[in-house]
Amino acid sequence: MTESPKHSQALTYWIAGAIVAAIAMALAAPNFAAHFEIGGELFLRALKMIVVPLVFTSVMCGVLGMGDIRQLGRPGATAVGYYLCTTVLAVAIGLVVVNVIRPGVGTVDPARLEEIAASSELPHGEAEPPGMGVVLENLALMLVTDNLFQAAADTQLLPIIVFTIAIGALMTTMMDNVRTISNLITEANELLLRFVMALMRLAPLGIFCLVTARFGKAHAEGQFLQELQQIGWYFAAVVIGLAIHGFVVLPAIYYLITKKNPYHYISAMSQALLTAFSTASSSATLPVTLECAESAGVSKRSTEFVIPLGATINMDGTALYEAAAAIFIAQAIGFELSIADQLIVAVTATLAAIGAAGIPEAGLVTMLIVLGAVGLPLEYLGLILAVDWLLDRFRTAVNVLGDSVGAAVVGTTIPEPAAATTD
């Protein structure tokens, strides 16, 4: 098997430069910057175009690489345990930071609160928050689809991953009979990764268009900076929480398990993290995350199995944000939340983040679930929407970093190929 191409560190610098240049142009000429939206949309669609076939081939290669399906048990259990533990830690960090900083106390103009309260209409026409039962029910239903091609068309990755794992598991029991199919899938996966590398040569231009158009549009509307003045402390609290989770907690887990320098690993993942910030989509970033993690030395079998699954259900940044946002809204409107209420917020944010894959418009809907769980008025969600699009980029980057660290952690439980198979 040929080795996957290694990503260029120079490309990372070009992407970082593109983001800085895009923000500068958006601030200097916001109306002109908004016209770059078509270029950004083309790049984003090109990334999304390859996600479904790459998920199928990479997960299949990961399962086949186990050799014996019985070897999938320990890595699978480790992956699920890692996802759950890091999500709980992220929620706890969000609650601690927002309770220490108290960004909602005395910072929001009462006139702004009255304006939001007067318009009882929920954002995007949501009528009422779904309960946690709906989240869990939809998640269960999303594990299996009645139309695999429709799921692929809608980029519903969870049923595709479940189907792929099931087919791959069966193939490991009949390897001699499916050798041709196995070789075809392996070679297709290599081809798709080559395509990703070719596409990433255009990444600085595509990311420049994406960022400059979104920042330019926000600046031209004049809402972003005004809202940031009102809820700047909330914005800072969420970013601080994400920074603690991304640069302290996840590196600590990485070091404890792998005994390697976590910041060297984060540096190796920088291209994926910058792409995540630019696209605000874990799924769209998935091809880049796979390539960067493998280039950083993570077992190919681990990256192919863990990262696609993590991009679907591992949402550390989202869980942290939802917990912090709920407490901020309560502080802003003077709604007292007891310790018990905050525990409910923690549990709800954890389950909602894990179950987000089963609900369309997941970020908005799961936020409504968290607010509804402790009786917070749902219309005050409008208080944070003006800056949500930017925070979404930060939390997506943390989500991707969590997936990457998860691949390294699970990789320690996967036996070496020589120990599993012999010629």
TrEMBL record:
Subcellular location: Membrane
Gene3D superfamilies: Sodium:dicarboxylate symporter (1.10.3860.10)
Membrane spanning residue stretches: 12-34, 46-67, 79-101, 148-170, 191-213, 233-257, 343-359, 365-391
InterPro entries per UniProt: DAACS, Na-dicarboxylate_symporter, Na:dicarbo_symporter_sf
Protein name, UniProt field: Dicarboxylate/amino acid:cation symporter
Xref: Pfam families: SDF
Membrane topology qualifier: Multi-pass membrane protein
Domain of life of the native organism: Bacteria
Keyword terms, alphabetized: Membrane, Transmembrane, Transmembrane helix, Transport
Keyword Heme listed: no
